[in-house]
Amino acid sequence: AAHPRLFLVISLTNIAGEMPVRVLLRNPQGGEAHFDNKVRADNTEVVLDMVMQLDNLALPALGRYSFEVWAGDEFLAARHFNVTLVQPKQQGMEQGFPTAGGEVGNA
Known about the structure:
With 107 residues, the chain is mainly β. It has strands spanning 2-12, 17-26, 32-41, 48-58, 63-71, 74-86, 97-100. The protein is elongated and about 55 Å long.
């Protein structure tokens, strides 16, 4: 399955100069995908907001996924979510479809 469009917002502070940022997406099967970027700030009090638009995000299995944020070799944060199978409430549909976070969507 795939999520049609997901936005990930990351706010970073206390940055002096240029810093590499890596976002890891870990899936329940142990696989991972990563998204690399660099951010720069000359004032450590500045809040940098990174907005990532992920279109057609592949979610190959049901289970727990996580986004991890790393600055260089330093772990900053993680956000977990579950992909579950939701049975549709509409008549005439024979199978459920996977959704992120357990919310029901319309096919």
